[in-house]
Amino acid sequence: MIIRPITDSDLPALQAIAVESGPGFNSLIDDRVFLEQKIAHAMDSFRRSVDAPDREGYLFVLEDPDTGDIMGTTGIEAAVGHRNPLYHFQISHVRHRSPELGLASQQDVLHLCNHYTGCSEVCSLFLRPQFRRANAGRLLSRVRFLFMAQHPERFADTVIAEMRGVSGDNGESPFWQAFQRHFVNLDFETVTRLAGLGHTRAIADMMPRHPIYSRFLDDAAYRAIGEVHQQTRPARQMLESEGFRYTGYVDPFDAGPTLEVRRDDIRSIRDSIGCSVQPLEHTDATLAQAHGTHHHDTIAIANGGVSDFRATVTDQAVYLPRHNRLLVPGHVLEQLNCASGDTIGFTRLSPAAQAAMPQEVSHAL
């Protein structure tokens, strides 16, 4: 499996993923012109010289090098909310108290806001069901953090992930249905499609501007606040294991939680190692045994490129801490387009996370 930047030739596969991902995955819309523009923007972002995050959007694909099949996608938005406003509901707590009557109550209140403008966002992760296999989901998720570790100047100090919220078998969101009845007469698929196409400001103009007491919503909508789609639970667990936390901001359409973390506190970034690389078969085996660490760990490994970025997984690497050198089989070097002595980055994939194989992680407005 190889992770690489998306190209024009990936359009048919990307459109298939947009269909397969379904309503609510509004960073990929089944609209050919939209997807063409998204690919073009990603290709330009990878080529661009950057010293601070701006409007770049990095979209990667997971490819089976033996067949050429595109297995899934994963992406990063460098700084959200500048081109199109990024709206959330902030959940706050209001306490009402009457000392005279000895009564008190606490209510949750929803406030529409733009809290995360300028933050980086991990998004667009979708592993196609027919390609689910060992390490595929983990590589799609963790490779974004490896890319951030190698190119920190391209990303903001705070990183967020918008998680897909609760929806029924018919694809409808119980949370949105409560708003549709009273404020915006658009079904969930239509409103998320419009949001994905960039019409967030127009939708927000129709949303209530005053705080909303969440208990005024029906029970299904109320229970959906801050909860994730059942297929997204492993993805949430994986992100929380990286240090992401829910702080009370939810998506305005399906009420899925937004998780956040400081970029440098992400475990895969903090624990990643930059070093030189060398072919394993050309190395003295005695040196590797005496000075190396090799516990058959599965690692994500990436070259240091941007437009020529490549990443893969291997369990056949030996790390020499004393020499700050990673020894890998020759075919891995070829997959990464690396030569002996090149600088690479790697991070260990926790064995405990093997069961967490997300089909999809997040959606971006």
From TrEMBL:
Biological process, per Gene Ontology: L-arginine catabolic process
InterPro entries associated with the record: Acyl_CoA_acyltransferase, Arg_succinylTrfase_AstA/AruG
Pfam families reported for this sequence: AstA (PF04958)
Domain of life: Bacteria
Presence of the UniProt keyword Cell membrane in the record: no
GO molecular-function terms, A-Z: arginine N-succinyltransferase activity
Identification of the protein by name: Arginine N-succinyltransferase
Native organism taxonomy: Bacteria, Pseudomonadati, Pseudomonadota, Gammaproteobacteria, Pseudomonadales
